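WARN retry 2 of 3 for item q-0093 after timeout on previous attempt; input resubmitted unchanged.
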Amino acid sequence: EVQLQASGGGLVQAGGSLRLSCAASGFTFDDYAIGWFRQAPGKQRELVSSISSGGSTNYTDAVKERFTISRDNIGRTLYLQMNSLKPEDAADYYCNTRHQGRDFWGRGTQVTVSS
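OK item q-0093 returned
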């Protein structure tokens, strides 16, 4: 059974940093792309960043140069280093992986940014 467990969210002042983690189990971690989505109240869930099995990364424009995604294949963990946080980054953050067209989601971790 695929399981994704996100952690690391919290309250931070604007300009601060947080590091999110997503522990994965139930599948061959290094065979699949994996990524972070976020959803703010009243808004659609959006892709923040993803990383392929080979380590290629992509970011939504709003977080480029501020967020860094990485993966530890041995530890089966996905990370998102978030720097220079802005109030508009506040959301529930979810990790996601897609296998044969099926999406798997972890429980979100909440990020709150005070101005």
